[in-house]
Amino acid sequence: MPFGFERDRIYNRRTDIHARFRGQQQGGIITPAEHPLVIIITGAEGLTHGYSDRLREDGAFEYFGEGQVGDMQMNKGNVAIRDHSANGKSLLLFRKSKDGLRFLDEYVYETHRTVRAPDRTGAERDAFVFELQPLESIQDATSISASAPTTDLAALRARAMSASRAQPSKSTATRTVFERSRDVRDYVVARAAGHCEGCGSPAPFIRTNGTPYLEPHHIRRVSDGGPDDPHFVIALCPNCHRRVHHGVDGQTYNADLLAVMATLEPSD
Predict the structure, then answer these.
(1) What is the pLDDT, as a whole number, of residue 166?
(2) Which parts of the chain sit beneath pLDDT 50?
(3) Phi and psi for 226 in degrees, rounded to 5?
(4) One-character DSSP codes across 165-212
(5) What topology is assigned to 2-134 in CATH?
(6) Which of 52, 74, 147, 183 has the greatest number of C-beta atoms within 10 Å?
């Protein structure tokens, strides 16, 4: 439950969002200044302003950026969506209904494209369409390798660093967020050399592909998503991973892991 929001539950924008996090009280993109999250809201009424958000069959969500008249600009809420992972912020999607805001899921920005679409006045303009992937599907896809990666740690690190610095918005040919996450995961697990980087215990078992079972944890955020940067991803045993998310000392332990990372992955 990211930030306490339950999937498919209805929330009140004023009491459940602004009273807790503040942020803009108008518009479809909320960027609280003091909290690591970006909240986006979709709804059928957006069609009257030139927006046509949609959930694709492959699970990705296409979200039109902000800007009702004229060409959309990559600033304010739009840049907050594009850079949420790099900024260590969760991206939460709600759908407006007559009863309030229904929480759909936590998403991760993958890329965006520019399309020609009418604005609120009916005039054609350039509009941004953000392609968002469900965080859960990325976690599922990157948690297990089909085959064992190369054992060349230097090569794995170079690939992981390259993946973490990729700019998916520059080209539609850029590798997907799933592929980049796998590169970081493979390196982090190899770096751990079969031992939890939190408690130091051996991995609890060996995967069918011959690699030790450890789980990548992104320590820059409370949730498991966030920026795929090897400087902020640590390999944990299942016990430590559950502790950091569900333990009474989870936040303190997460801070401890951040200190550990300074020794595991010094700044370049």
Answers:
(1) 60
(2) 146-147, 168-174, 222-225
(3) 90, -175
(4) T--GGG-TTSPPHHHHHHHHHHHHHHHHTTB-TTT-PBPSSB-TTS-B
(5) PUA domain-like (2.30.280)
(6) 183
How far apart are the C-alpha atoms of 207 and 145, rounded to whole Å? 9
Dihedral sign from CA coordinates of 107, 20, 234, 240: negative
Token reading at 46: 């957006």
The pLDDT value recorded for residue 52 is 80
Q: What share of the chain is helix, strand, coil (3-state, %, to 5)?
A: 35, 25, 40
In the chain, count H helices and then E strands.
7, 10
205, 223 Cβ separation under 8 angstroms? no
Radius of gyration of the chain (CA): 20
* φ, ψ (nearest 5 deg) of residue 13: -60, -40
φ, ψ at 234 (rounded to 5°)? -125, 145
Structural tokens at position 144: 């297990």
User: In this structure, what token pair is assigned to residue 55?
Assistant: 């959930």
The per-residue pLDDT for range 198-240, each reduced to its tens digit, is: 999 999 999 887 888 998 888 876 444 455 788 888 999 999 9
pLDDT at 266: 78
Owner of token pair 């594009």: 82
pTM of the model: 0.69
CA distance 179 to 185: 10
* Domain locations in the chain as residue ranges: 2-134, 143-264
The mean pLDDT of the chain is 84
Residues written for the chain: 268
